[in-house]
Predict the structure.
Amino acid sequence: MKSPAVLFATAEMAPWVKTGGLGDVAGALPAALRRAGTDIRVLLPNYPALRAAFPQAAVLAELPALAPGLPAARLLGAESGGLPLLLLDCPALYDRPGNPYLDPAGHDWADNGLRFGLLSRVAALLGQPASPLTWRPDVVHANDWQTALAPAFLHYQGGAASVVTVHNIAFQGCFDRPLLAALGLPDAAWRFDGVEYHGQLSFLKAGLQLATLISTVSPTYAREIQDEHFGYGLAPLLRHRAGQLRGILNGVDTAQWNPADDPALAAPYAANRLATKRINKAALQREMGLHEAVDRPLFGVVSRLTHQKGLDLLLTVADGLPHLPAQLAVLGSGDRAMEAGYRALAERHPGQIAVRIGFDEGLAHRIEAGADSFVMPSRFEPCGLNQMYSLRYGTPPVVRATGGLADTVVDISPDSLAERTACGFVLDADTPHALWLALERAAAAWRNRRLWQRIQQNGMRRDFSWEHAARDYAALYRDATRH
């Protein structure tokens, strides 16, 4: 069967616009699908970063106002590494400072419903007979709430099959009812089995209700979001549509994240050359202002400092690390109170605990390479990327048994070691005590050099390339066209 043509609609795409995992996925998955032979194009807003990156983008179509509340726009064409990009050009909605969703003061843009309603409407239009382009997709692939209204337009107006991927179900895109008419959706859509959700228009609920198929970013997360604890109110709907729900594990950019050829590192290394990893540890200790101690493990963190990421659990127990003994290097930002807590932690333990508030891509790579173990005790984690980076970098992670963390990290146990699969340390509860026990286990294993090297090499042998996910998504698209 011929591979379906696909429109990949997204609000983010690395390296130009990224606030989280969606940006990474959009920057890698369509390219991997294109390499595998899928006719795929990416639709995203023409934000300032993209206007700067593609100043010569050609005008492909003029789009009149598609609904009473939507402005006219243009569709521009560009190309990145052989991947066609469709840039939705509407300066009134997208040419703004701040990130895609928030103004410079950190508040939601008041017209986000219109901004991403237009993006969803155009995504659907390109999959309909009235499309202004000669190219038409067989499948429109929407991602998270920002484009999840596209399947609703396709459902009520006709057109291509649709897939919606949930990257984080906590964000649902809920707006007041008047937006329904402003976006041109019919009154008939305002139903419990349409776009209505507790008296509001929910972009994500609409997509989950009306898309041909649903996917999310790991098999475990696909099961978890059908449970009330993880489903953020949408679990009953997802249980109802369980037969159309798939869990496909994200990949990582194995060229960008490769310890054997990473320009950010002090020294390259590989699974058969682990001795030089110590050079990166010493370099990281110097960079972060830690004592160059060789007699204790160095734990690393690169994360948003939030409750979801479980970094409050680490903050609760971290005063005990120098007595383990162990060191800690933290890079991240987020909750202001948590930022202050980590700064105070570092001040209490100079030379043993170091904290950098903010983000630095190069330092993130150096922490992955220089740390002995990576700490990621997330309360929920749809997929997670840092644990896969850590495995590639021979830095066994300490993780919670949730989402993609459960799908990628095999805990140390006699059985797992016999099968040569153990690659990290898994805690089953989101409590400080459970985290502390896992850190103690990791520190004890680190002192057994032969055991530690075996754990490192187990992780480094894992294949998390995007080619696996691309094959699974290509199969998903074929299934969508059969429904």
Notes: The CA atoms of residues 95 and 350 lie 44 Å apart. The chain has a mean pLDDT of 95.
